[in-house]
Design goal:
Layout: H1 6-16, H2 24-53, H3 58-66, H4 68-92
Helix pairs in contact: 2-4, 3-4
């Protein structure tokens, strides 16, 4: 009887995944999809809270993003996302034991 740890089952799952699902392109696609859903969810949340309390929350958020500072904040967030995608790709590649 051997006890399986969480890392063992994770390694087994990674080995059973097709190589296409482990590629950088697939990882980037999943990340972009998640970011898009998060942005859409945030916009919907701001709109719903604004409607519930009678305050325009979506307008100031859009105004912030249309300023030059807001654009650079967006670029910085995009850079952080790309760095995190690259870092997660490095974590997935392990040398053979």
């Amino acid at each position: 009887m051997s006890e399986r740890t969480t890392s063992d089952t994770t390694d087994d799952r990674r080995e059973s995944e097709p190589a296409a699902e482990r590629s950088a392109g697939a990882l980037l696609t999943r990340t972009i999809l998640r970011i898009g859903l998060a942005v859409l969810g945030l916009a919907l949340l701001l709109f719903a809270l604004g409607q519930a309390f009678g305050v325009d929350l979506l307008g100031p958020a859009v105004e912030l993003l249309t300023t030059e500072t807001g654009r650079w904040i967006g670029v910085a967030l995009l850079a952080l996302v790309l760095i995190s995608v690259a870092a997660s790709g490095w974590r997935r590649r392990r040398p053979p034991a």
